[in-house]
Write a structure and sequence with these properties.
The complex is a heterodimer of chains A (about 100) and B (about 190). With about 100 residues, chain A is mainly alpha-helical. Chain A has 3 helices and no strands. The longest helix of chain A has about 35 residues, at about 60-90. Chain B is built from 6 helices and no strands.
């Protein structure tokens, strides 16, 4: 048993699919935002994996740097998204993004 | 051109392999839990656990600085933001949608299609591998030299996001046409 590039890429694909499911299937703005976080994290893990095992092995820190930047952008997106979710809650008293259509 | 160094080998150390497998399972499991659970507090707890698992994965395959930043900054800030939102909106109702609702089935189908596509790409592509032996500078050195501009831009983006979040939360909102509008100072519904 070993851990290589393919295993990590498959794991990130599953992680990305979970984020996609949250984005498509759920109405809650919070869960949808968390879905985007999972998608960001999946991409970041793939970069680190490529840095460790793939072409990036020559410059190992490049993949990690991209993961760091992706994490920072994800946190910024989460902050603004949650502020918008708070405004949504003040207006509608729930987090459903399509409350007008129910 | 002579090849210098060796191809990067997979990780074969048994304890490390078991650790990575465990972390990957827990990471995906907690992500699924945060998507499927109905209680918002449990959702946030599962999300935080998932982010901690990502940090542990970084510990296994990435540089230590990335693990520290992911654990101490990203996971903590995300959990703090979510908890702050939960405190502001106490009284969140659980979703009324069941797991077999129309949205759930469509979402599962889309997610399965995306997963199948990604797995096919991963399985059928022969990823080029590089050489080890000239690993280059460390992450800290690379951030302060090669990626200095990107780091500065990231700081600006984070500061802008913090400012924008503050302005959004401080802005007065218009009364709702449905009568449920927000009047600042009313406080959360209990």
């Amino acid at each position: 048993m070993s851990v290589g590039l393919n295993l990590l890429l498959v794991a990130t694909a599953v992680f990305f699919a979970v984020g996609t499911f949250a984005l498509v299937a759920r109405r809650s703005a919070i869960v949808m935002l968390l879905g985007t976080q999972f998608m960001f994290a999946a991409g970041a893990i793939a970069f680190v994996a490529f840095g460790k095992f793939g072409l990036g092995a020559r410059t190992f820190s490049a993949g990690a740097a991209v993961a760091l930047f992706a994490g920072g952008i994800a946190v910024a997106e989460l902050a603004v998204g949650l502020a918008m979710a708070a405004l949504l809650y003040r207006e509608q008293r729930n987090f459903a993004v399509d409350a007008d259509h129910r | 051109m002579p090849l210098i160094g060796a191809l990067p080998h997979p990780i074969t150390s048994a304890p490390l392999v078991l650790f990575i497998y465990l972390v990957l399972i827990l990471m995906v499991g907690s992500a699924l839990a945060s998507v499927l659970l109905r209680n918002t507090l449990y959702v946030i707890a599962a999300f935080s656990a998932s982010m901690v698992m990502v940090a542990l994965l970084y510990l296994a395959i990435g540089p230590f600085l990335l693990f520290a930043v992911q654990l101490l900054v990203f996971a903590t800030v995300s959990a703090a933001l979510l908890m702050g939102l939960l405190r502001e909106t106490t009284g969140v109702k659980a979703s009324t949608l069941g797991p077999l609702s129309r949205e759930g089935i469509i979402g599962a189908a889309v997610a399965a299609a995306v997963l199948a596509l990604l797995v096919v790409v991963v399985a059928t592509t022969s990823w080029p591998t590089g050489l080890i032996g000239n690993a280059g500078p460390g992450l800290g050195e690379a951030l302060t030299n090669t990626y200095l501009v990107a780091l500065a831009v990231l700081v600006v983006i984070l500061a802008s996001a913090a400012l924008g979040t503050g302005l959004l939360l401080a802005a007065p909102t218009l009364p709702s046409l449905r009568g449920g509008g927000s009047i600042r100072g009313r406080g959360p519904r209990r």
